[in-house]
Amino acid sequence: MDWLERVTGLRQWSRNGTRAPHKPLLLLYALGRFQQDADGALLYSAVEADLRRLLAEYGPPHRTTPAYPFHHLTSDGVWEVRTAHGAGSPGPGVSELRDSRAAGRLAPELRAALRREPGLAGRMARVLLDSHFPPSLHGELCDAVGLDLEPAVDLPLLAARRQRRDRRLRELVLDAYAYQCAFCGYDGKLGGLAVGLEAAHVHWWAFGGPDTVDNGLCLCSLHHNLFDRGALGVDDGRRVLVSQRFAGGSPAARAHVTELAGRPLLRPRPGVSDVAVTHLAWHSRHVFRDGPRPVAHA
């Protein structure tokens, strides 16, 4: 059985491009726990808070429940659930899972394959990360689920997918914005080379966003991470949005984040396509969290 193809083909709820990374997050969490305890099962009531936190931080902007993937992942052949009454999930309801003492773990065949192939967990994790999350979040997401990735290896299954990404995009986007962060204007260089600047996809590549300049922003590392986490956004008037959910009372947090609210986005140089409204709308709908903070300075 090709487990990489299996996790690539996870069945997920989808409507109008909505992000639904519930199953990938649960599977990443389960792989991390498998590395720590290969024989342990995950009692729903014991891991519910962890899974809820992962969904709040890395899932879609709207509130959701970890009961959904805990039950439905069983249909993908990688996960099993047992209750006090025997094998099988009692359903997707929170109360049902709690009351029946439902416990889940990776399917027996997958656990056996992971024991035979020590590098399989890392390869599966890379498929999940590449398919559902932007690269800026991969490291911290692995830390959040306790997953230890092994050194990168070539994955034939993903080779064609990787080749479709335009490796020139970073330079094209940075050049379009004159090597300045479109949010704060940072333009640092080291030895004449840009440092701490990245090309951010507005409409995530993992969800069909193109590798084009009109889907890119030149952002410093801090603002790239906050943009991908939904703490920052851009409205259709191309002004910076700061999520109401963001909190930071230090002078640094105010200067680098909250005081950006309402600031005009740095525009690309003449002759270069501006960020497409359709891509901004996708980010606002699927990534930006809650409503924007009020603009303190107009």
UniProtKB/TrEMBL annotation:
Q: Which GO terms describe its molecular function?
A: endonuclease activity
Record carries keyword Hydrolase: yes
Name residues in a coiled coil.
none
Q: Which InterPro entries match?
A: DNA-SBD_ScoMcrA, HNH_nuc, PT_DNA_restrict
Task: Name all HNH nuclease domain ranges.
Answer: 168-225
Keyword set for this entry? Answer: Endonuclease, Hydrolase, Nuclease
Supply the name of the protein.
HNH endonuclease
Query: From which source organism is this entry?
Result: Streptomyces buecherae
Lineage of origin: Bacteria, Bacillati, Actinomycetota, Actinomycetes, Kitasatosporales
